[in-house]
Amino acid sequence: MESLKITFPGAGGEALAARLEMPAGRPTAYALFAHCFTCGKDSRAAVQIARALAARGIATLRFDFTGLGGSGGDFANTHFSANVADLVAAADWLRREHQAPALMIGHSLGGAAILAAAGQVAECKAVATIAAPADAEHVLHNFHAALPEIEAKGEAAVTLGGRSFTIRRAFLDDVKAQAQQDHIAQLRRALLVLHAPTDAVVGIDNATRIFTAAKHPKSFVSLADADHLLSRPADGEYAAGVIAAWAQRYLPAAAAAPAAEPAGHADRVVVEETGAGKLQVRVQVGPHGFLADEPVALGGLGSGPNPYDLLCAALGACKSMTMRLYAERKGWPLTRAHVAVRHGRVHAADCADCETREGRVDEFTCEIALEGPLDDEQRARIFEIAERCPVHRTLTGEIKIRASLTPAE
User: Fold this and answer.
1) I need a labelling partner for 265 at 20 to 30 A (CA). Which of 1, 132, 289, 336 fits?
2) Is residue 121 classed as helix, strand or coil in its secondary structure?
3) Phi, psi of 163 (to 5 degrees)
């Protein structure tokens, strides 16, 4: 993957700072992400979700709204409508330089802004909100104590997230004037609402109101015990995974069937360098693609499993599948098989059952757990069958590897 640092003109002409997270291969689609109120493009949720989507093939643009982070302009002169206009400008930039966003995602107030902006981006097919308020006016609770001063003096300095911001009366008037329920009702895009029932900043009732106002197709996913800012990495990864999987039905490029393997090569695995980092490669197995890499400590980006991880995965998957098929054929109550595989190298002299007596020997250790009301005889037999799985037999049998050098294209 690659993170591109870019700048594009906002709705008011200010230079907006942005990052475009690009997947290793050709993007299946482009997405636009809107951050939470005063957060910025480099907030934990914005970075994690954008990169997780890129890892799944969806190029994602995240940027700082006017007056925030690395973007130009004065935050005090902005309001909710200005954020919406910046989102439309971001979509315009993507359309000019790459491809218009088919997916638009917003976190917290950014979610409200996305709901208002999506209708102005014709190519947008799907919208996802994360912990979004049903009304833009909800943001006022962040500085409720300063509202009398803002009304009386026209502005006031408020502290949000440990930083000081000037909020003016025009901001209050703008959020109060938003017809957000109309924006939601007239969205005419597939909608995914993600919200935590325990969100202490934007209550779950907001998700209910958004979902109720929207027309089908619409979906709701609970973020369980996540906090409002998705502070735990696992919550951001989960949200990104759900969004990417849900969006597949609606993204035009992703909806197309995968290209078929060339005739005569349906059984081959293709591996090629991505150009990202020194060691990252993309592995294509028929219609399935993923990254392989090495850890950062070994010169890689840590963006995927290493070659021995993949070999361990092949062995573990084969054992699991073999045990499942055997148990099903026998009608035995195997609820779940769990296989943990590790690879290492040991001194041949320390290996009592190895034919090689010098140097080192590759060793795979497999720990197998079988769940379900199996008796001891059934467990022993299933374990014995696992030792006969095809990959196990391949690794312990005679292997020939024949390589050829093909002409450069």
Assistant:
1) 1
2) coil
3) -120, 150
Q: What is the pLDDT of residue 409?
A: 52
Q: Are 53 and 101 in contact (CB under 8 A)?
A: no
Helix axes 80-97, 169-176, angle to 10 degrees: 80
This prediction's pTM: 0.62
* Of the listed ranges 29-38, 108-117, 252-261, 288-297, the one predicted with least confidence: 252-261
Tokens of 55: 């890892």
The CA angle 50-54-57, to the nearest 5 degrees, is: 145
Question: Which domains does the chain possess?
Answer: 2-255 (3.40.50.1820), 269-396 (3.30.300.20)
Average pLDDT over every residue of 379-400: 94
**7 within 8 A of 17, measured Cβ to Cβ:** yes
Strand partners for 165: 158
| C-beta of residue 43 within 8 angstroms of C-beta of residue 279 | no
Q: Which long-range contacts (CB under 8 A, 24 or more apart) does 285-293 make?
A: 286/258, 286/261, 287/258, 287/259, 289/25, 289/57, 291/1, 291/24, 291/55
Q: pLDDT, tens digit, for every residue of 134-148?
A: 988 777 777 778 888
Q: Are 240 and 52 in contact (CB under 8 A)?
A: yes
Q: What's the Cα-to-Cα distance from 294 to each of 277, 302, 305, 310, 362, rounded to whole Å?
A: 10, 5, 7, 12, 19
Residue 266, pLDDT above cutoff 80: no
Question: C-alpha angle 85/184/8, rounded to 5°?
Answer: 20
Q: Which amino acid is at 240?
A: A
Q: Measured between alpha carbons, how far is 311 from 306 in angstroms, rounded to an integer?
A: 9
3-class DSSP state of 246? helix
